[in-house]
Amino acid sequence: MKKRTDRKIAIAGTAAAAVLLPTVMVGLAQAGVGVPKSRSEASGNSKPIPSFGPPTQPAVTDGTTSASPKKSPGTSKLPSIPLNSNPFGTGGTSPSPNDPDSNSGNHGKKPQMPSGAASGKYAKAPDGAAITRVTKINSRIFDVSIASPALGAEVKTRVMVPKGWKAGATKTWPVVYAYHGGNNNYTSWTKDSNIEQIIGPYDAMVVMPEGGWNGSYTNWYNGGKGGIPEWETFHIGEVIPLMERNFHAGSMRAAIGLSSGGQGAITYAERHRMFKYAASYSGALNITAPGMPVILTSMNRDAGTAIWGDPITARANWRAHDATVMVSKLKGIGVYVSSGNGQPGPYDNPDTPPHDAGRIGEQLAGTMNDNFVAAAQKAGVPVTSHLYGPGMHNWKYWRVELSRSWPTIAKSIGARKS
Predict the structure, then answer these.
(1) Contact indicator for 390, 270 with CB cutoff of 8 Å
(2) pLDDT tens digits, 215-249
């Protein structure tokens, strides 16, 4: 009887914790408890995540970095994250049935090819990842199904080829790897943006891989054991070689991304140095900023600390995926970053309430980008920044930023108008 009663108590306790933990974490964060109080390691002027209120500094309106942002008062509070709200959400869809982030039964398993995956006729990636199917969407856009050991699933990557591209060609093309934001998928860039109009006239290929519902752009920590899903391995070790071996993608590469995809673009450039240029639009570029870890672990309620680990005990892993901490590794790489500050801007409803997810998301992004730019200046890393002040977390701004940054990106990878 005692063993049975103990088991019931354990189950009930686990269930209660699962319900209460997100609320407790946000409450602790707002009280300043449970997160490291030290500043983000790379930035001497790192600002804590603030509460909503009037801007504390003028917006940077020129195209380059300027004086370091002013420090916010140390008493700044964390914004309250409404339940069932994702400040970094960028779509209105639902996760696919085989989304690796949502398939918790596979999390932590050793990477392996998904069952039933056919080998196909295409050259494989070094770890055995294989293209299983190519579906033509139109004359220049293909959806490529990839059986991925790193994800333990078959996912898709959308590819836009340049004019004159042929499957049997021997030449290679400059390539842009475009990473989507959270709560979205590989179709986002062609569905939500103006990428076809902006990059389409150039002799550049655009590769838009699946990035998962959580959009974490990392190999998940999974309690320290790693394993599925390994998004960084998928994007760097599988997608890139598959594109180069089968679609004639060249070695002149750029990485771009928005929101969490912006974090992916910058951290991939830092960690692998395979890209000539990296651009982030409203990216999560300082995940160890005071208060930010608890917001991220609470916001990702289903994944929790499985993505990067506990923000205190796995601090080294958080730092290893923080764009601001690693900013010195961007020396020699072209960089563009932009964000608003969460106040309603020219494309927003001026009466948008402070608790709106789009306002919260961009205020968080704005603070992280301020910290990133300050850290880059301190490290002597040239960064083109457009911190445009009022503006919320949505595509109306990111389309403008893609258009604004593209000429410099194109020049860096040698892309020219066809």
Answers:
(1) no
(2) 789 999 999 999 999 999 999 999 999 999 999 99
Please give the structure tokens belonging to residue 209.
């891989």
The model's pTM:
0.84
pLDDT above 60 for 179: yes
Distance CA 241, CA 236 (A): 8
The structure tokens listed for 153 are 């699933």
What is the Cα 267 distance to its own chain's centre? 9
Give ∠ CA 247-250-266 in degrees, rounded to 5.
110
Q: Which of 275, 96, 71, 278 is nearest to 187 (CA)?
A: 96
DSSP of 21-53, one letter per residue? HHHHHHHHHHHT-SS--SPPTT-TTPPPPPPSS
At 162, the amino acid letter reads P
**For 273-294, what is the mean pLDDT?**
96
Tokens of 274: 């395979």
Q: DSSP string covering 81-111, please?
A: --TT--TTB--S----TT-TTT-GGGTTPPP
Query: Residue 290, exposed/middle/buried by CB under 10 A (0-12, 13-18, 19+)?
Result: buried
